[in-house]
Amino acid sequence: MSMTGIGGILVFIADIYAIIQILKSSAKGAEKLVWALVVFLLPLLGVIIWYFAGPGKKPF
Fold it and tell me: Which of 23, 38, 49, 52 has the fewest CB atoms nearer than 10 Å to its CB?
């Protein structure tokens, strides 16, 4: 398995984690849908944006 394959698997795992956290958050249904679509349609960038600006607790 090459580094590209490993990177893809890591991004996939991060996406699944983000979507689960989005669905468990206290955000409204429409907000959850928008965030889940952002993460789904922009896998790497979506996870980064969600981490810093998404619903739930902020890392800082």
Answer: 52
Low-confidence ranges of the chain (pLDDT < 50): none
Task: Give the position of tokens 């952002």.
Answer: 38
The model carries a pTM of 0.80
DSSP assignment of the chain, as one string? --HHHHHHHHHHHHHHHHHHHHHHSSS-HHHHHHHHHHHHHSHHHHHHHHHHHSSS----
d(CA 38, CA 8): 17
The tokens for 54 are 């998404």
